Amino acid sequence: MGSKAVVSVYLIISLCAAIFVTRGVAQMQNPQAIPGLFPPGLVPIDLVKCWSSLFTVQGCVLAISNSFFSGKFENVEAACCKVFSTLDANCWPHMFPLNPFFPPLLKDNCARIIPNSPAHN
């Protein structure tokens, strides 16, 4: 069998598999609806909830992402710092998985901008 024939057979099998798979099987189920998947109390963090408060302040997400990539915090304003300081610390590892040191650095910088904001301990 030549390479063209192998590719053709592979394509035919893939098309048949795609046709016969039912629509319901391809849809993902809600992780909370699958009993026993997560231990009680360890429900996955909702990233939409974590990021939604930052979207309420205009330019906050952009300022934080610029700080994340540049390491400079001068564009993060007080309103953004105020919202960031209210985020649950459990959100941080899921929001910034590539750099776990960034959230404490940003929070420490925000503590300088807003005097009443608690610094990271």
UniProtKB/TrEMBL annotation:
Keyword Membrane tagged: yes
* Pfam families named in the record: Prolamin_like
- Annotated TM spans: 6-26
Q: By what name is this protein known?
A: Prolamin-like domain-containing protein
Choose one Gene Ontology CC annotation of this protein and give it: extracellular region
Q: Which UniProt keywords apply?
A: Membrane, Signal, Transmembrane, Transmembrane helix
PANTHER family the record matches: EGG CELL-SECRETED PROTEIN 1.4 (PTHR31181), EGG CELL-SECRETED-LIKE PROTEIN (DUF1278) (PTHR31181:SF61)
Question: Which domain of life does the protein's organism represent?
Answer: Eukaryota
> What lineage, starting at the top, does this entry show?
Eukaryota, Viridiplantae, Streptophyta, Embryophyta, Tracheophyta
What stretch or stretches form a coiled coil here? none
What is one process in the GO biological process aspect for this record? regulation of double fertilization forming a zygote and endosperm
Prolamin-like domain spans which residues? Answer: 49-110
